[in-house]
Amino acid sequence: MRSIEARGLTKEFKVYQSRSGLTGAFRDLFNRQYRTIRAVNGIDLTIEPGEIVGYIGENGAGKSTTIKMLTGILEPTGGCLRVNGYDPHREREEFVRTIGVVFGQRSQLWWDIAVKESFRLLKKLYRLSGEGYRQHLDRLVEVLEIGPFLDQPVRKLSLGQRMRCELAAALLHQPRLLFLDEPTIGLDVLVKENIRRFLKQVNAEYGTTILLTTHDLSDIEALCSRVVMLDKGNIIYDGDLERLRTQWGDGRRLILELKEEVPSFVLNEKTRGLSVKWEGEGTRYTARLEKGTTVSDVLSRLVPAVAVQELKIEEATTEDIVRRIYREGAAHA
Ligand SMILES: Nc1ncnc2c1ncn2[C@@H]1O[C@H](COP(=O)(O)OP(=O)(O)OP(=O)(O)O)[C@@H](O)[C@H]1O
């Protein structure tokens, strides 16, 4: 059974539009006008058990709306959806036992009670019992190093401590599929590293499928072999990170320090006809090399005319690549 299978998944929102002025407000009283927003536009998405998939897109692309449909919070307007074999919205009660959810911005733990009391409530909610549960909990407490905070109320924990407790809470019932929405937002580098290591471990040991939404591309680099990129409700890339890099990552940067100041128009002139964008001024320039243009193409034009003191070549980072795809608005798997 597939973890996620969506065909033509669509969500539309009807938004009330108010007319301007007093007459407009008066007319709104009797005849409201609505506008339809198609937040998710007929996407096809299949995720197999054990995959770790990064779900990315700019603000407003439709990520949260998708996750809300996949977790059963929102009912789709159209399309077919099965998650862990269930219809998430219609079979919500049985379905939620098979998933875990961590939203970085919101807590599923009770704010004023001790963490272990929250765990106890969740245990009742999921109807968990027995030695298996005890051992699993002990393991989570040990690996996430949350033992010292179990007696404290959530409101007294730091963000990093709370996130580790959230992860434990989301995994108490050993779900087959884990949804993570911005799990490392606001955390310092060390805590981020620990959380990523833990997630890899959970995935390897229990075969837990993970769908991760994040704006932090280093999460994706550390965890996901596959990325799904959303733009205005449509999937514009679904494939591995490596392919994304090779298809779009030829935008290398050449960083130059010149012996003498040279105006930028000279560099533009010398490299006319090549796909290169110059940034900088005086003696320091960066050449952004676009598709097809190589470092030696640029240097062979420059070196006879301009004295170069030092040069450095930088590969485009995933962040550069993704920004570029967002800007240009398309990518094909
Ligand atoms: N309840 C709602 N009512 C009306 N419009 C909505 C609602 N929820 C989302 N939208 C609209 O749907 C579109 C997609 O929003 P969504 O929150 O899914 O994007 P997102 O990719 O998660 O963005 P972000 O990264 O900012 O969280 C946006 O245009 C948003 O304004």
Automatic annotation (TrEMBL):
What positions does the domain ABC transporter occupy? 24-257
Which UniProt key words apply to this protein?
ATP-binding, Nucleotide-binding, Transport
Q: Does the keyword Magnesium apply?
A: no
Q: Where is the signal peptide?
A: none
Q: What is this protein called?
A: ABC-2 type transport system ATP-binding protein
Record flagged with keyword ATP-binding: yes
Top-level taxon in the UniProt lineage = Bacteria
Q: Which InterPro entries match?
A: AAA+_ATPase, ABC_transporter-like_ATP-bd, ABC_transporter_ATP-binding, P-loop_NTPase
GO MF term set: ATP binding; ATP hydrolysis activity
